Structures are given as C-alpha cells and as structure tokens.
Amino acid sequence: MGYRVAVVGATGAVGREMMTILEEVNFPVTDIYAVASRKSVGIEISFGTKTLKCLDLETFDFTKVDIVLMSAGGDVSKAWSEKIGKLGPIVIDNSSAWRMDPDVPLIIPEVNPDAVWHAKKKNIIANPNCSTIQMLTVLKPLHDAAQIKRIVVSTYQSVAGAGKAGMDELWDQTKAIYGMGDKTPKKFTKQIAFNVIPHIDVFMEDGSTKEEWKMVVETHKIMDPTIEVTATCVRVPVFVGHSESINVEFESPLDEREAREILREAPGVAVVDKREPGGYITPIEVVGEFDTYVSRIRNDPTVPYGLNLWCASDNLRKGAALNAVQIAQLLDERGVIVSVDA
Ligand code: 2RA
User: Fold this and answer.
1) Fold of 131-314
2) Is residue 12 a known part of a binding site?
3) What integer is the mean pLDDT of 94-121?
C-alpha cells in the first residue's frame, strides 16, 4: 500500500532533501519519479538504494501520480501547479506562488493541520516560507497558552535559502578572501563572506522586504490574523540553518519557566536552554535535524507579559522539504488521499 509520488525540481537542494526525507520517514511510496526541467533530464538522483533518472517536466504524465512535491521556483509553479492539480494529484508546493491564494491552504502540520481539509479546492497546498515555519512551530504552543499580541523577530538566514548558487557564492568568496579567485557578488547584492546583508527578496513600497512581509502575512493566514508582527530579515554567512531572535508580547501572563515546560512538550520543538557558556543552540548544530531548537528563553521585563527567545532550524528540512513531506503524511493520516492499493 502506498502512493505514487513525483518530485518536481528534483535536482535542486530542496528537491534532493525531499527524496531523502521521503525515505527517512518511510513514507509509503509505491512509485517515485524525479522530474525536472529539460536541461536536467537524465541526471541521476538517489532514492534509498535506487537511482532515478530525471524525467522531463514538459512531457511527464501527471495522471500516473497521487502526490507532487514541487520545488522548482515560483514561475514554474505558477505555470504548472494548477494544471497538474486539475489532472488529479495534490501538489505540495514549496514556492511562494500560491501561499496567499484563499483557495490554497498554507500548512505547518504542528500548527494548523485542519487546513488540510481545504486541499481539494485547487488540489494545491502551499508550504510556508522557511522563516515563518520555524517561528510558528515554536510560537503556536505559547499562543495557545497565553494569546500572542505582538511579535518582533530578527532572522539570521543561511545562504542555503538562496539555493545552490547562494552556497557556491559563500564558498567561492571565502576562498577568494584567502587569495584564490573572485569575490565579486553575483547572487547576493554585497559580499556575503565575513559579512551580513539586511536584505532578502525584493523591496516593498513601505521599505520592508518581501521576506519580512511574508513573515507577517503568513503568520496571519496560518495562526491568527490579530497578531501584530514586525520582522527584519538578514542573510548571514552560514551554509545551512536559519536562526531567529524573537520577542513576544502576550495578552496574559506566561512566565519563562512555564514557557520552557510548554516548549519541552511541543511537537517538532526541542529545548536546549542552559544558562551557561555553550548551553544554547547554534545553526551548525541543527543541520540534518527535524526539530526546531529553542534556547535563551527569558522574561522581557519591559512589557507586562513578554518573552525573548532564540531558535534555529534546518531550513532545507523543517523550513522546506520536511514540512512538505509532513503535509503528505497529513494527507494520508486524515484520509484526504487514499493509497493506490487500499
Ligand atoms: C531564503 N526564504 O532564505 C528564503 C528561502 N525560502 O532566502
């Protein structure tokens, strides 16, 4: 018993993680296809002990699959997801193309699993932005306990969020600084090696960036439209793993000890919070992990009911591929799709 699955964008960093995670979580797969643009046709992708050859998106027959995990960028998703959905499979899309469409649920399984019941409207489900996923995975149980009023978040986002080109640029510039090669920025607007850049995605009219805007509107759609959110998103010279410094103001009292106990029990969250040198999490330590790690949980005495915390998560996993696979698991668990041999 299982599902027929296609991964579109299978050669990208997230597409490859999708393949790995399907295997790691033992997702019930009967048939698996790696699909990509024409230039990648024939490239070999591993799926467990098997090797798949990439098939052409233009000619792939989507009627033979139940689930499409799509990580091929916004333009490809805009051109293909709706067409594929009309053929029958459910598309779980990692781009920003459909996130704010009212007929497309935007899901973090630990936060708003019931939104999966709206999956059939367009047969598209959107995966939220990486920085929103880790923030809300941590904040949802605290919101349930004391109702969040306002969030002030600053992100420290790894270059993996900008794809392979971002990772290559950090590597090349780092080598160039020691005398080998060219350190001219290509993917990023300024040098990223030994630097930080307070700019991710395009600028909006109000001076914020689209990455910052996403954290606001996605929080409203996924968790609660009444929460005030203000964000500053920053690219840092870390290969994989996004971190966030979050200040939260609540409607009712929530002490740091209570918050720590709630977070210890929360799904998808791990607490590392010893008040001593090294007793906190850093992004390099979360690479390959499923959980979002929380540290530095402490009261904010400047407001009646406030907390500060730090979190870090593998942005290619919980921030992208893992969350998408967890949505596929949710479709299965809730019976929104039925496995082929059932
Ligand atoms: C980034 N948010 O880190 C993007 C990836 N989804 O640039």
Assistant:
1) Dihydrodipicolinate Reductase; domain 2 (3.30.360)
2) yes
3) 98
